[in-house]
Amino acid sequence: MLQGYLAGIRRLTLREVPVPEPGPGEVVVRVERALTCGTDLKTFRRGHARLPVPGPFGHEAAGVVHAVGPGVERFRPGDAVMWVPTAPCGECPPCRAGRENLCRRLFEPDRMALGAYAQYLLLPAPVVDRHLFPKPDHVSLERAAFLEPLSCIVRGWHRLGRPREVVVMGVGTIGLLHIMVARALGVERVVAVGRRPRGLELARRVGATEIVEGDAQKLAGTIRELFGGEGPEAVIEATGRAEGWQAAAEWVRPGGRVLLFGGLAAGTWVHFEAFRIHYEEVDLVGSFHYTPRDVREAYDLLVRGRLPVEELITDRRPLTDLPEVFRELDRGEAIKVALY
Fold it and tell me: Tens of pLDDT along 268-280?
């Protein structure tokens, strides 16, 4: 079978490997759709603290069960399925405290389903047990493949709360998903901020009530004036840039909350004005990964069809184009590509 393999920074290849065979509790799926994502692009460009490089590449996908291992009873060959690539152990201190997204065993190699840019993928027993779901007939494969990123977005909103208004900084896939979820949750005013006209156009289509084009570092006055000079109640940073983190803390109103969603490279330090955090009680909140509760809520959102996620796919390409697809993503020529 063909498998995408990240051999090093910006060294993405396709290789022939045997189709995996499932062990006890495991499932092998035939990947019908895999989606590119910002995390994979960052990994392609600079590596990742949690994802092995070199190693099989890709983690957003949906497909059909090819084979099941001993002990698997909920699924059989031919079932259409959707999944997320990790599952908590349920036993470590963070898991027992209800913080399964911080599980100490979450990223152990034999517990992760990495390598979605491939014709077949082995799902480990923990993933099969907790995070493998049937794909209803009315849910397209492309929609189903959004389960992993949407689970992360849902986690972010559990951290942010339910503001009446929000500014979303960044109009890549993650920012656009935040806009969709904001509207689905009934947020009345959603302002999208970005530099790419194509992304801002998509933001309007998927639910932004207003759009602002420009460099985040130069927009503090503009954003505050949109909200009566005080700034918005909440800001979501979805660019994954240190200057974006700093700008978000400048935009929000006193007593507001900032969700620092876009991840930065390990070792990055960001400076914030102490006055804002102490005297104006600005809350800076991080968000990482997802819990089983987040995954279930994301699954329900996709099944109910409340989010126009397919709008985010800007191209559809065969798996054999994978190396070229990432070169195009690296040049900013696409937002999200579905591979088949």
Answer: 999 999 999 999 9
Return the sign of the alpha-carbon dihedral for residues 227, 230, 233, 237.
positive
Query: Do 28 and 118 have their domain in common?
Result: yes
What is the number of domains present in the chain?
2
Same domain for 229 and 317, yes or no, is: no
Residues 43 and 88 in one domain: yes
Residue 276 CB coordination number (10 Å): 17
How many residues comprise the chain? 340
Answer for the pair 340, 58: CB distance below 8 angstroms, yes or no.
no
Domain ranges, residue 322? 2-145+308-339
Beta strands across the sheet bearing 189-194:
210-213, 189-194, 165-169, 234-237, 257-260, 283-286
Q: How far is 130 from 274, CA to CA, in rounded Å?
A: 42
Which CATH number is 91's domain given? 3.90.180.10
Give the chain's radius of gyration (CA, Å): 20
134 sits in which H/E element: strand 132-134
Residue 300 lies in a domain: no
How far apart CA 179 and CA 43 sit, in angstroms, is 25
Together in a domain, 98 and 32 = yes
pTM for this entry: 0.95
Over 90: is that where the pLDDT of 48 sits? no
- Is residue 8 within 8 Å of 55, Cβ to Cβ? no
Contacts of 16 (CB under 8 A, 6+ apart): 1, 2, 3
